[in-house]
Write a structure and sequence with these properties.
Layout: E1 2-10, H1 16-23, E2 29-34, H2 37-43, E3 47-60, E4 63-69, H3 77-84, E5 89-95, H4 102-115, E6 120-125, H5 135-141, E7 152-155, H6 161-175
Parallel strand pairs: 1-4, 1-5, 5-6, 6-7
Antiparallel strand pairs: 2-3, 3-4
Bound molecules: guanosine-5'-triphosphate (GTP) and magnesium ion.
Protein name: Conserved hypothetical ATP binding protein
GO molecular function: GTP binding; hydrolase activity
Pfam family, one: ATP_bind_1
Length: 176
């Protein structure tokens, strides 16, 4: 059995913790804190990841995925650094209905690219929500200029097991 370390990163509230929870076969380790009032106003939720999420999924007879979710907030980016080093692959989740987070997603991508060159895919979340921006427009905002440089981009609903497993399979096929 081979352990494969997958990191789920992305913008605040994109669905990283939800993704890990949906994927995992074990009780997930979640290190979250209540967000302050000002943060609630901007993110419409009451908890945020401050360290990491951890879950496990046995993908097939040969592969066990160790899945780590990062914090979204930049003040915890020391954890991005710790988690991405040693990753075999990662997923960047981008909240498709939040246009003002796209430049932040671009910064996260640059942060990860500076540290590792491993397979990755981009997962667009909240595409079921009103105000979701079309994929081609998001790609432009992420600074991906041509098809050659474009990683796989898929719509992901972190609440749905099928969707999460599909995304993981697309990624794992790039690792092997
Ligand atoms: N409708 C819808 N809701 C989603 C989707 N993805 C995530 N959510 C919801 O978005 C909220 C935030 O999800 P989290 O998993 O906490 O987000 P996070 O990326 O871990 O957030 P931080 O740790 O604060 O960066 C939860 O209520 C999820 O159920 C999606 O694709 N569609
Ligand atoms: Mg989280």
């Amino acid at each position: 059995m081979k352990n494969i370390r997958i990191v789920i990163t992305g913008t605040v509230g994109a669905g990283k913790s939800t993704f890990v929870r949906t994927a995992s076969e074990i009780d997930v380790v979640e290190i979250e804190r209540k967000v302050s009032n000002s943060e609630i106003e901007s993110s419409f939720k009451d908890k945020t990841t401050v360290a990491f999420d951890f879950g496990k999924l046995v993908l097939d007879a040969n592969k066990i995925l160790h899945i780590y979710g990062t914090p979204g907030q930049t003040r915890f980016d020391f954890m991005w650094d710790i988690l991405i080093k040693g990753a075999d692959a990662y997923i960047l989740l981008v909240k498709a209905n939040q246009a003002d987070s796209f430049s932040y997603a671009k910064d996260i991508l640059a942060f990860m690219n500076d540290r590792v060159q491993v397979p990755m895919v981009i997962g667009l979340t909240h595409t079921d929500c009103s105000g979701a921006i079309p994929t081609e427009e998001i790609v432009k905002h992420l600074g991906i200029l041509n098809a050659k440089d474009c990683p796989a981009i898929l719509k992901v609903n972190p609440r749905l097991k099928n969707s999460v497993v599909t995304a993981l399979n697309v990624l794992i096929n790039k690792v092997i």
